[in-house]
Amino acid sequence: MTTFLGVPIRRSTGTESPLRGTETFPVAARRAVGNTVQRRNLGRATATIRAKRAAVVDEVPDWEALRDTASAVKADVMARLPELLEQLEAAVTARGGTVHWAADALQANQIVTELVKATGADEVVKVKSMATQEIGLNEYLEEQGIAAIETDLAELIVQLGHDKPSHILVPAIHRGRAEIRDIFLAEMQDAPSDLTDEPRVLAMAARAHLRRKFLSAKVAVSGANFGIADTGTLAVVESEGNGRMCLTLPDTLITVMGIEKLLPTFDDLEVFLQLLPRSSTGERMNPYTSLWTGVTPGDGPQDFHLVLLDNGRTNALADELGRTALHCIRCSACLNVCPVYERAGGHAYGSVYPGPIGAVLTPQLTGMAGHDDVNSTLPYASTLCGACFDACPVKIDIPTMLVELRGRAVDADRGHGLPGGWAAAMKAASWVMSNEKRFAAAESLSKAGRVLAGKKGRISTLPFPLSAWSTSRDLPAPPKQTFRQWWRDDHVAPAPVAGEGDPS
Fold first, then answer.
1. What angle do CA 20, 135, 253 make, to 5 degrees?
2. Strand 262-263 to strand 458-459: parallel, antiparallel, or no bridges (unpaired)?
3. I want to staple 245 with a disulfide (CB 3.0 to 4.6 A). Which of 73, 91, 214, 444 is the partner?
C-alpha cells in the first residue's frame, strides 16, 4: 500500500460509492432524456445562468488574463502539493486548530463521527459541501445515530425529497416549484398548511425551519472553497447566509477539504474571488464570503478541526494529464454550457460530480476497469464541442482529457477475449480505408445513403449492426457527388485527343 505524507492511500472501489453509479451513462441518459419535465427545468435554469454569467464576464476587461493566472496558480499548487499541505497544517495548528489526514472516504467519515460523538451531540448542521457528498458523510452519520441537517436551500430540498443532487451549484435544478412545495408539505413538520409554490414563500418556510436548527446546534460541518497555505485561512463562499450561520454559531466546527483546494498565498485569493462568483452564479461577488483562521478566543467556534481528504486525489496527481482535473474550483460553469448535461441531467452520470468535469474527474479519482465499468462510459458523455473549455475559469482542457480517457478505456480491453463491437467496427473501417479500391467501392454506397435519407435529408435508421449508431444519432444525407468525383471532374485535365496539340 502506498503512502502520501506518511498516510496510507487506499483506492475506493465499492459499488455503493457516491463516485460510482450502478448504470452506464448511455443507459441512464436514455431514460433521463425521456423525462420532458426535467429537460424543461434544466433548459430554463441553465439558460438563465449562462446569460447572467455572460453579462458579468463581459464587464471584466482582463478576464482572459485572470484565467491564465488562475491556471498558473493551480499548476504551481499541484507541483508543490506536499510542501503546501505541510505549510497549511503548521499554520492551522499554530492558530489553535487541529488537522486530521484522511486517506479515503471511510477514514474521513470515521474521523468526523468520532469528533461529533466527543461533543455529545446527536445532530450537526451542514454547509453545502461537495467533499462531504463525495464521501457519503450524511449517510454514514445517520448509521451512527447522528442527524446531518443540510442548511443550503437546494441541498435541503434534495435531502427532504430523499433525492440526490444533480448539479454542483444548484443541486435541485431538476425540481420545479410545485414539486418543492409538495416536498415541504410532506417532509417539513413545521411547514405552514397554506404553503404556496411562490419562490419567496418557499424560501421563508425553509428559513423558519432552519433558524431553530442554527440556534440549537453545537456542531457544524463544512467544506472549503479554498485553503490558504501560508496563513492557514479557510474560505467558504455562498449566497444565502446559511453558511455564515453554521461557521459562526456552533461551538465546534469540522471542515472537510480536498487536498487540492489549496492556494499558496492570501494574495492568490484575489484572483479566484473574481473568477468563482462570475462563473458559478453570474454574480460580481458572492453575497457571503466567510474567512476564518484557526480559533479566535471569544469569537466563533472554539474547537476547529480540519480534515484533509485524499480519496483518490493522489492517483490523479500522479497522472501528468489527469492532474489538471484537480484544478477544478467547483464553479459548475462547464455544466451550464454542456449540451449533453442540459438534456440528460446530473443523475445520469451516477457520480456526485456530473457534467463535463465529472466525466474526467470521477474516472481519475476511482480509476476505470474496461468497458464493463460504469465510470469507463463517462468520457463518452460529450460531443467534444469545447464549450466547457471556453467556460472554465481555470482553463481545464476537458475535451483533450476526455479523448485521452476514451483511449485508456479502449486500451484496458485490449487482449481480453474477443473484440467488442466497437473494436470490430474500427478494424473493418481500417481495412476499407487502407486500400484505394476498397475505399472507392465504399464511396459508391453513397447513392444508397441518399435513398435512405429520402426527403428528410438525414438518415435516422440503419440496419444492424449500424443501428447501434443510428438509435441516438442522425446522419446527414451523403452529397450527390463524392470528393473523388469532384476532384476528377474539376482538377484532372482530360487526356489529349490523338492528332491534337501544338502544330509546331
1. 160
2. unpaired
3. 214
Strand 219-222 relative to strand 252-258, pairing? parallel
Strands 219-222 and 123-126 come out as parallel
Expressed as residue numbers, the domain containing 483 is: 435-491
Taking the C-alpha atoms of residue 485 and residue 340, their distance in angstroms, rounded to an integer, is 37
Q: Report yes or no: 145 and 114 within 8 Å, Cβ to Cβ.
A: no
Backbone dihedral angles phi then psi of residue 438, each to the nearest 5 degrees: -65, -40
The answer to whether the beta carbons of residues 49 and 336 sit under 8 Å apart is: yes
Cell numbers standing for residue 265: 498565498
Distance CA 462, CA 455 (A): 16
Q: Who has greater pLDDT, 353 or 370?
A: 353
Residue 69: all three cell numbers together: 493566472
**SS3 assignment, position 335:** helix
For residue 200, pLDDT beyond 60: yes
Pairwise CA distance, residues 39 & 31, whole Å:
11
Q: Are 71 and 327 in contact (CB under 8 A)?
A: yes
pLDDT band at 333 (very low <50, low <70, confident <90, very high): very high
Could you identify the residue written with the cell 448509521? 143
Q: Which residues pair with residue 411 across a beta bridge?
A: none
Domain end marker among 281, 314, 347: 314
433 grid coordinates? 480505408
The residues facing 124 across adjacent strands are 148
Instruction: Write down the pTM of the prediction.
Output: 0.86
Residues 293 and 440 occupy one common structural domain: no
Looking from the CA of 452 toward its CB, the CA atoms found within 13 Å total 18
Within a domain: 360 = no
DSSP per-residue codes, 172-188:
TTT--HHHHHHHHHHH-
Residue 221, SS3 per DSSP:
strand
HSE-up of residue 390 (Cα within 13 Å, Cβ side): 11
**Mean pLDDT over each residue of the chain, to the nearest integer:** 89
Backbone angles phi, psi at 135, to 5 degrees: -95, 0
